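INFO  loader      accepted 1 record
INFO  loader      residues=387
INFO  predictor   begin
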Amino acid sequence: MGNEQYKGKFFDTFGIIYDKRQQGKVRHKLIDILFIIVSALFAKIDEVEEIYMWATAEQNKKWLKKYIALENGIPSISTIRRVLNTVNPKQFEKCFISWTRELTIFSENGGDIVAIDGKTMRGSKNGDKITHIVNAWCSANNLVLGQVKTDEKSNEITAIPELLDLLYLEGCIVTIDAMGCQTKIVKKIKKKKADYVISLKGNQGTLHNEVKEYYEDLKEEMDKIEKGNHESVKMVRTLDKGHGRIEERKYFYSTDIDWMIDARKDWTGLSGIGMVYRKVTEKDKVREEVQYYIGSIKDVSQFAKAVRGHWGVESMHWSLDVTFKDDANKTRKDLAPENLAVAKRIVLNMVRRETEEFPKLSANLKRLKASLDVEYRTRVFDINFKK
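INFO  predictor   done
INFO  writer      dumping C-alpha cells
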C-alpha cells in the first residue's frame, strides 16, 4: 500500500459507510468504488456505464492508485451499479453534510442565507415514479449543504423538516418558497436558532390575503416609502443591467404587524411582512411581478439579501443540469439516482471551492480541465480533502 493511500478527509468521512454486500464475496472495497465514482464525475463523466471505461484508462488507473489500492483491479460496471443501488443514501448524505460542515464558514455576525428548494430529476423517471431532491444551499459559501430525497413533489413538506434536522443553522436566515410555508417548518427553524423568510402564495389563504391587502392599502403612500420617509415600511431598490436586459427590484418590509393577532400566534417568531416588486425590460418587452413574504427578521436590508440569496439556489439547479446533465441522466433504478445525486453534489462543492487557479472558469470547464490534467485534478482533491 502506498504511503498516501486511504489518507485524507474523503476516506475519514465516507469510509464509515456501511457495506451491505456479502463480505465473503466482496472483491472491491466500498470506499474504493465511491472514490472512483466521485473521481470520474469530477473528470466529466456523467453516466454510470462510462465510469468503468474512464477508470480503466492507464493514466486514470495510475492516478487512482495514488489514493486507493485497487488490489483486484478496477470494479466492473455491474459492481459499480450494484454499489450505487445498495449504499444507504441517508448515511451517504449524512457523511456529505459532515464534510460540507467542515468546509462552511459562517459569518461571525450571523445572517448567512441558507436557501432550501426542491428539484425534480427528470431523467430518473421510472414508470410513474420520479425522484425529487430537496437541497439546502449556502449563498455566501457557494456550497450545497445537504439534500433529502422525496418520491413526490408534494412530499417536500415532510422532507424539509428532515433536512433541517441534519443542518447546522444557528444565526442563519433560512429561505423557502411557498411550498414550505408551514407553521411546523417555521417552528423548527426557530428551534434551530435561525431566522426565516418564506414566500406566500394564494393557497395560504388568509395569510397571503392579509399581506397583499396591507401593501395594496399603501399604494397612495408609495412616494413617501420610496423616499424613506414612511414610519412603518422601509424599501431597498436594486437595478441590474446587462446583455440588453434591465431588471429592477423593489423590496418592501414592515414590522408593523401588531394587527396580525392570529398570525403572530400561529407563526413562531413572526416579526415582519414583505413584498418584492420585480420589473424586467428586455427587447421592448416588459414583465412585472409581485411576491409576498413573511419573516422573523426586522431589517429591510436583511430581507432583500435573503430574497436575492434564495434566487441563488436556482443557479445551483441550473448548474447541476448544465454541468452534470442532471435531467438527462438515465440512472433510474432503486437507490442509484439518490446516491448519484449525492456524489454530484460532492463534485459541485469541490469545483466551487477551487477559486484561486481558475476563479472565473465554469464548473463544466473545471471538470474538463480535470479530465485532461491529472495535476489539476490532484490539486482540487487536495483543496477539498487533504488534512
